[in-house]
Each structure stands twice: as structure tokens, then as C-alpha cells.
Amino acid sequence: MSWSSKKQQTVAASSCEAEYMAAGHCTKEALWLRSLLSGLEIASLGPTVLHCDNQGTISLTKDTSYHARSKHIDVTHLLSMSEWK
């Protein structure tokens, strides 16, 4: 389990965008923790589950195709999310 709190670097235009940015931060943290555990030779038992209660954010993370209302989010944040792969 990990916990962190920090001020977001950009201003979110909606709660969906704020949750999307937070989910991105959580994903980076989860990938780092999985890498740490792998380095310690502790096997992962399955995928890391990220919980979110914002339906707009869930929709964006499931389908990354073009969304007219989220174009500004993709331009700002999706490019940095491509570094996760």
C-alpha cells in the first residue's frame, strides 16, 4: 500500500479531468511499486486494480479514442501517459 498527497501541476477544468490526472499519477505509482517488487524478486499474483468512482474517468480510461469533450485532456496529459508503456 502506498499513500501520497501533492498539489496537481495544472488546473483541471472538470472533476472528470481531475480524476483522470489522479488516475494517471496512481498508475505511475503502481508501476513503480510493481517494478520494486520485481527487483526484490517478489512475484505479482495478478494485475494491479485501480478503483475510480467517476464514470467519465472510467469511460476515458476504457476507450482512449477521440472524445470531443476530452481533447484538451489528451493533449495535456495523455502524451505523458504514453511513457508508462
Write the layout of secondary structure elements.
Elements: H1 15-39, H2 55-62, H3 71-81
Helix content: 40-55%
Number of strands: 0
How many helices in DSSP terms?
3
Q: Overall mean pLDDT score? A: 76
Element pattern in H and E: HHH
Class inferred from helices and paired strands = mainly alpha
What is the radius of gyration computed over CA atoms, rounded to a whole number of angstroms?
14 Å
| Stretches with pLDDT under 50, minimum 5 residues | 79-85
Biggest sheet: strands, sense, closure?
none
Quote the beta fraction.
Answer: under 5%
Envelope shape = elongated
What's the domain count?
1
Q: Cα distance, first to last residue?
A: 22 Å
Entry keywords:
single chain; 85 residues; mainly alpha; disordered C terminus
Characterise the protein shown here.
The protein has one domain. 52% of the residues lie in helices and 0% in strands. It contains three helices and no strands. α1 (15-39) crosses α2. The chain is elongated and about 45 Å long. The two termini are 22 Å apart.
Short précis:
With 85 residues, this protein is an all-alpha fold. 52% of the residues lie in helices and 0% in strands.
